Amino acid sequence: MPQGSWEREARFVSAAALRRTAGPAAHLPAEPAAGSATEPPTEPAAEAAERLAVRLRATPGVRRVDVRPNGFLVVEIATPGEIVDEVLAAPAAVPPPRAASAPDFVAPWPDFPRTWDNPGFAVRYAYVRAGAVQRWARDLGVPVGAAAGAAARPGLLDGPVDRAVLRVLAELPSRRDSRDPGWAAYLERLAEVYHAAVERASPIPRGDEPPTEAHAARVRMGEAVRRVLGEGLAELGVAPPGKI
Questions:
Q1: What's the mean per-residue pLDDT of the chain?
Q2: Are β-strands 10-14 and 62-67 bridged in parallel, bridged antiparallel, or unpaired?
Q3: Cα 6 to chain center, whole Å?
Q4: Which of 7, 117, 156, 238 could disulfide-link to 233, CB 3.0 to 4.6 Å?
Q5: Sheet holding 10-14, edge to edge
Q6: In this predicted structure, what is the pLDDT of residue 44?
Q7: Rounded to whole angstroms, what are the CA distances from 79 to 6, 25, 51, 76, 146?
Q8: 136, 145, 190 from 196: Cα distances, Å
Q9: Is the Cα torsion angle 153, 156, 158, 162 positive or negative in sign?
Q10: Would the CA dihedral through 226, 228, 234, 238 be positive or negative?
Q11: 3-class DSSP assignment, residue 132
Q12: Exposed, middle or buried by CB within 10 Å (0-12, 13-18, 19+), for 40?
């Protein structure tokens, strides 16, 4: 899971080492089952973490790895913007939306009022807004789609509002694996940081400003946001809107 705000350091906390242990008595041989061969001792959490840390420190893109006494790993990545490529490269896990008329359907938010006080409006509008940014960018000469992938350097997503979006996007794998992903609250947070990013670090040129690589990187980040919002809305049984 990502840790902290990511405004300065993009860090994850991993419990991978704990999966190789057997809890507090991990240093003891496992109790053999009846009729089975004796199992070898399980590696202590701290030792497993140190061994994994050595391997991680040699991995491209990893800036630093610290080991906590309890066996947790704290991994700092060098270029958080690469998360955008990972989101867009992964197959979208979008189920067919449930019919709003189904007996068990309960919408997480009302459609109205369409004001910022309604988180459902903020989420739906963020989805539509990210799509509109793609169209505006194309009209203004900013690369989009596959062209943006070639022109957008992940390292350019280094401002505080861009990093705030990346920080929320980085939760996606854990959300997908969780028994209780909390999609509604997650989408609300993603929509909030995306709206702030569009307002404070525009993905499209303003006035006479020429299109830049930074614009392309932000447009591509918006594409990732739109995909995640669409997936989350479908998970909640809400059809992603075409327009608002």
A1: 87
A2: unpaired
A3: 12
A4: 238
A5: 2-3, 10-14, 73-77, 62-67
A6: 85
A7: 11, 38, 24, 9, 20
A8: 18, 22, 10
A9: negative
A10: negative
A11: helix
A12: exposed
pLDDT over 60 (residue 116):
yes
Cβ–Cβ under 8 Å, residues 240 and 127: yes
Q: What is the mean pLDDT of residues 191-217?
A: 95
The length of the chain in residues reads 244
pLDDT at 228: 97
- Which residue is associated with the tokens 């140190």? 50
Residue of 192, 225, 229, 203 lying closest to 133 (CA atoms) = 203
Output the six-digit token pair for 172. 């996606």
Distance set, CA 133 to CA 78, 116, 233, 238 (Å): 28, 19, 19, 22
The encoded tokens of residue 30 equal 């496992």
**Per-residue tokens: 135:** 């169209």
Residues forming beta bridges with residue 64, ordered by sequence position: 76
Listed range (26-40, 46-60, 70-84, 150-164) with the worst mean pLDDT: 26-40
Asked if omega into 203 is within 30° of 0 (cis), the reply is no
Query: Would you put residue 12 in left (φ > 0), alpha (ψ -120 to 50) or beta?
Result: beta
